[in-house]
Amino acid sequence: MSIDTERQQSGAEVTAPPVPSLVRAELPTWAPWAVLGGSFVVIGALLAATGGFSIGMLVVASAVVYAVATYVLSRVVEGGRKAADRLVTIVVTLAFLIALAPLVSVVVTVVGNGLARFDVEFFNSSMRGVIGAGGGGYHAIVGTLIITALAAVMSIPVGLLTAVYLVEYGKGRLARAITFFVDVMTGIPSIVAGLFAFALFALFFGPGVRLGFAGSVALSVLMIPVVVRATEEMLKIVPNELREAAFALGTPKWRTIMKVVIPTSIAGIASGVTLAIARVIGETAPLLIVAGLTTGLNFNPFEGRMATLPVFAYTSYAAPGVPREPYLDRAWTAALVLIIIVLVLNLVARLIARLFAPKTR
Amino acid sequence: MGKAIDAKNLNIYYGSFLAVEGVSMSIRPQTVTALIGPSGCGKSTFLRSINRMHEVIPGARVEGRLELDGKDLYGPGIDPVGVRRQIGMVFQRPNPFPTMSIYDNVIAGQRLNNKKMKKDATDTLVEQSLRGANLWNEVKDRLDKPGSGLSGGQQQRLCIARAIAVQPDVLLMDEPCSALDPISTLAIEDLINELKMDYTIVIVTHNMQQAARVSDYTGFFNIEGTGKPGHLVEMDETKTIFSQPKEKATEDYVSGRFG
């Protein structure tokens, strides 16, 4: 009897779970900042003392020391789970900053170098007869807009209808083959698209042909798979219930697609298409081959060479005249204008998405 | 208004899988018929085969005869789109079109099919349908607002208004109250009682009290085990099914002693 009670007691002692406390130690909010400042000071002093001081070294080494020190400190004070949380937060933040660095660098460089010639003359004069300073990229801006618009006019219907086929109708082998080739096309190097257009137009017009329209064809080869992919994803997320609701009202399939499926997903499709345009507008290689370069204004994509911003920037930079400076300035400004166009397209995409999005109130 | 449905030895397949086997039943015009049974026994599948919605799923097909007032809906030359215009459907989850206003949702059947209607004719139809669905008083001041801004019960009644606006002969309801609270459920059950004056109604429900409350006839579906096809065990007047069913399985199910 007494032995039994004892055993029970000791058993109870062994299995009794530790009472979990809801209160746990926490680092004060200023602590991580103090650690960050501390690691900067310490590493800075250390580097200065060894004589190998450099900003890059300081930033990298401080970041590492900061991560390690915060982890150790938090582990001691707050425990393992909190310490892991802090460490992962630091790593994620660092990864974000690393990803941001080239972007910021590009914007700062292009804006810094491009502002010099970002004037009225750049937007209202071409390079006809210009040697040295002056001149502008009007002809290249016009060329870029015309060629890209033509490419969009060709790619959007083809891409949209292909996506509708794949999502709404495509079953079996043909659909799988199309999906496969769209995937392959997404990976085509842009120079190959340029060579394709060049070869195609050489068949009709003889070798050495250069046309704005050929550039559009090359760009649409690159653009179609992007449009297909974007539209496909948007059509897929339209709930099947809406299609069934329309069918149950006695609506034929094609009307269901036209009046229910596409309107429901139009916001996503429109922004996807705009991003596809932004994707091809900066292509250089194919346009260098098929559209060529000219110094004068050309509004007719079906006759003669056509300048475009990327090619204009490339040739001005790769083969500047004498003196070099005006050519380099114009190249930077062309790059800046291109970035602004892409930025505006992105904003337009967001605006379209907001405008067309189904409202709930 | 209101037509009879006769199923004769109907086999319903998903690809090569026989989901529902040998269903024969007669549904009388202007009655409410409830289909009850455990999950996966094929009552929704059978319901969807009545307005040829079943075949929307790839590989799905139906064998046998299904007659609407004597005309075989699966006969040669029958257009499934035409069938669906005569047999409306309300789904389990309310699914108003998110891009359309309440007004446009109600006349979606007309708009989607490009029927030209005069403005006052559509106004009348919208009011009539919304009144028919007991929703008019709640939404008459905000007809131009999106349908997806309504509550779940209101959305479901909007879907019913949309279904009756195309003036079908038969209304199919696939668990129309399973996503709704008791008050909305009551509103829809009252509505079903009114609608049977004009329509033949077939309703699938998991709620046996609901079946007992709203239906004139009840069909009990069952399944032998997973992977086996579902079948119709018996069909009779609702009173009979719930008081003295012929089959042991039916009695077990309606008295809650199932499984």
From TrEMBL, chain A:
Membrane topology according to the record: Multi-pass membrane protein
Every ABC transmembrane type-1 domain range: 141-349
Organism superkingdom: Bacteria
Transmembrane segment boundaries: 30-49, 55-74, 86-116, 136-166, 178-205, 211-228, 260-281, 331-353
Matching InterPro entries: MetI-like, MetI-like_sf, Phosphate_PstA, Phosphate_transprt_permease
Record-linked Pfam families: BPD_transp_1
Subcellular location(s) per record: Cell membrane
Alphabetical UniProt keywords: Cell membrane, Membrane, Phosphate transport, Transmembrane, Transmembrane helix, Transport
SUPFAM superfamilies: MetI-like
Chain's role: Part of the binding-protein-dependent transport system for phosphate; probably responsible for the translocation of the substrate across the membrane.
Family: Belongs to the binding-protein-dependent transport system permease family. CysTW subfamily.
Protein name: Phosphate transport system permease protein PstA
Organism from which the protein derives: Pseudonocardia xinjiangensis
GN (gene name): pstA
UniProtKB/TrEMBL annotation, chain B:
Domain of life: Bacteria
UniProt domain ABC transporter: residue ranges: 5-248
One Pfam entry name: ABC_tran
GO molecular function: ATP binding
InterPro entries listed in its UniProt record: AAA+_ATPase (IPR003593), ABC_transporter-like_ATP-bd (IPR003439), ABC_transporter-like_CS (IPR017871), P-loop_NTPase (IPR027417), PstB-like (IPR005670)
ATP-binding in keyword set: yes
Xref: SMART domains: AAA
Keywords, ordered alphabetically: ATP-binding, Nucleotide-binding, Translocase, Transport
UniProt keyword RNA-binding, yes or no: no
Protein name from the UniProt record: Phosphate ABC transporter ATP-binding protein
Species in which this protein is naturally found: Pseudonocardia xinjiangensis
Classification of source organism: Bacteria, Bacillati, Actinomycetota, Actinomycetes, Pseudonocardiales
